[in-house]
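pasting for the record
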Amino acid sequence: MKHTFYPKNRDGFTLVELLVAMMITIVLLGVLVYLTAISMDTYRDSRNEVRASRQAKEALETIAKDLESMVSRRDGNAYEWFWAESESSSLKGPAAGKQIANASRIIFFTGATDRYDGQIGTPQDKGGDVSAVSYRLVYKDQISGGVPTSEGPFPVFSLYRHLADPDEAFDILAINKLKDGSSSIFSEANDLAAENFLVENIYEFTITYLVEVKVDDVAHLVRATMKPDGLTKFAIRGSGLGFLGNIEFPESSGLDGDDFRNGRVMAVQVSISVISDRGMALIKKLPAARWDEVKSKHLYHYTKTITTPSP
């Protein structure tokens, strides 16, 4: 008969050893989850910034092309070639404290290359080369196709570009009040039609004019920014500049409003703020008291200076 002998001391893990191993595993998993969360947050922030950059690039490049080919005549005529004022639309934002910070509505003449839907040189091209364009920033739904003058079910901050072809622009080329004379073309319903939507999530649209003012053969560069507590209206006319509001002249320059009216616009600086999709979702849910917190984390700022043609 064979007998099987077993050692008295068998190898294995004690309860204490198992508990220590479990604790180490839990710590390692916690560190892994933490690092993964950080990586996801970094990826999400980078993605939001890249998307905001693309939206800003599309908006700024489109505006720049129109301003670079802006058309005006400085020969003493009384006609308006460029007109802007602080946006007065009721479509400003979801609630008090969370509305569009600053926006200007602008109308001007330009040699846009996408006139006639870009079909230049085809039978659709009627021979004109001076178009008129309008830009507006409002808070509305541009997807559902609802009434242009209402917010709609899924509103976002939306920048619109309404291009009027040369055959339409011809009728308003020689008028003293560009806003009033073009009201049938650049009405709110026409401007905010779905086909004129340019880019979403633009929370702020600020324009600064760089104006050269000469007094006694000395040139001064004046920065005039469109904002509710500053410059509220601005126009380029054949006889000079028109404006309403406050302008901060350089210290010790001795300049006044009459000097500014005789100045020339050398460039236009366009500043926009883009809010991320996450930021858009948060401002619809959070109270206005936390809006500043959302802006600090989800708002991106971009600026472009465009040299304008000398009239």
